[in-house]
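Two folds, back to back.
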Amino acid sequence: MIPYKKTFLFALLVFGLQACKKDLQDTNRNPNEAETAQPDYLLANAVKTAGDTYYSTGTTMDASLLFVQHWSKIQYTDADRYIFTNGSFEGGWRSFYTQSLADLNVLARLGDEQKNPNYKAAALTLRSWVFLLLTDAYGNIPYTEALDISKLTPKYDDQRTVYLGLLAELKTALATYNAAGPAIQGDPVFGGNLGRWSRFANALRLRIALRIADREPELARQAVAEVLAHPAGLPASETETARLPYFSSPNQNPVARIFETRDDYRISKTIVDRLKALNDPRLPVFANKTATATPEVYVGIPNGLTTGDAANLGFAKTSKPGDLFTKANAPAIILSWSESLFDRAEAAARGFSTENAASLYQQAITASLQYYGADAAAISTYLAQPAVQYDPGNFRKSIGEQKWLSLFGQGLEAYAEWRRLDYPQLAPAVAGVLDGKIPLRFIYPGTEQALNKTSYTDAVRRQGSDALTTRLWFDIK
């Protein structure tokens, strides 16, 4: 009888443990949280986290906007003098990978599982945008092995591999969008309009084609031809600018959130001087008047002053960036209609298309001026200036200088285009620490050296020193 008693007691124990396990599973369930990922929520969250990261302090306000001299700093000026640590650029890297890209990978998988190709196509399109932001800023990055749970130390792919991979991903996305397929929900950018998603994907392909144009002109030419031949076309009006809307607190623009409690930032003297020289109607939009009346009305701060020298210019006697960019509901611009027109103008100038470069250049400037409220007379006067007219002998200067103005506030994209086109020609920070140079990339986060050292070391060996002044593959001087 003893063996049977032991068997019976063992069975009771197993049954009890199973019951406890079930109780614990029930206890650990959150009744207010879906157990199956919802694609509409994933899409909305991925766009929101990417937009927040794009316009964050670490990637934009204390980095790219200062490097391209759209903004400057009046206090805590280390970033404006190019003083950074290996933790300075960690926030953007971590957020793009662990939040936006992680959500988009799941969204692409759910698109397959739920037989909704449009979710997958949107995921591939946004993935390409986020990876593009990362490689433009850092150079070699984890791409082909990124977010693969079997690869705890993913390799870094070189920029050529990343750019060509993104062109291919976007081509797949364009072939995947299906107007006859199920709708997509949770879309804060285009409200589920698949035609606009396709045109956005084409505009991204055009952007990337120009990134590689100096290194791989024939591949760039091929990509441009595919974009221009695609039936979806490219953005055709301001309504098709890709933008993430923001609202009031707690869902306000991240720039507005910073301005609620801090007074670090002013508009750069570099861009104020340029706007004044051109009698540019965007000046009162890009800059606020000084709080204390001054003869100049709009006063920028030179980039890279010491904190003491900057503060001596006077908080009330210098101009903050315009309210349009710092209010709670200022949208995050992902890719504007004006940018798409500039890209078409450059493609034509390079001989990649038969379009009229000068006409598209004027259309791009017009689109930017109209967006900021300039009327027809002001636009006509502006375009007639010799300093604004298109120079076919130096398209880099014409497009580079005007694109720099039109991308005001879009730090990461303005930074990439300034490095690629080499215009406008900017003077380094007044009290900069890079021996008269402006940063050409973000340095890798220190956590990569600690947690992915072998791949990090290999990336640096192939790309060059992990320094702010290392020139990236796409950036040919």
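---
second:
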Amino acid sequence: MPTGTLVLTRHGQSEWNKLNLFTGWKDPALTDLGKQEALKGAQELKKAGYTNFDVAFTSALSRAQNTLAIILKEIGQEDISVTRDQALNERDYGELTGLNKDDARKKFGEDQVHIWRRSYDVPPPGGESLELTAKRVLPYWEANIRPLLLEGKNVLIAAHGNSLRAMIMQLENLTGEQIVATELATGVPIVYKLDDAGKVLEKKILE
């Protein structure tokens, strides 16, 4: 039976990452470093032989879209189908959006900000927890991405730390506590080989 390959990549550093701001659904551009991170990830994919994708997915935000564009250009696959959807957007940080993380700690208290950032199910005011983000991401995953993998397609996704965490939690059967402790480096591809039931056979991080 055919087996699909899935590659997940967190976008490169954005201008707001550089400034230590809560970004969420805001749309800052990639920094020069972010573009370099995306290119390095693409070079690692090419070196490892992952240059034959059938489709690609990304969010509605330019930092993820531009990361994907850099990757596809480097691996010579600019002509494949690309789907952009806000279901794959970063977690919405609500009232924290645009705040410097140090300033947020001063305003709301260090313990409270830590809970909002690192708990699974406690959202910041007006925003999403990782649990709520997963409830947005996973129906899209089940309806639009997983079926392609079960057909044996090779799928590339460039998205965000928390939308990718939602997918990783599902793929690896992680708990909420485990997934919030999972760090994803910017621009670094994670490769999953799946069987025809969608079970992970192999995982590689291309650093």
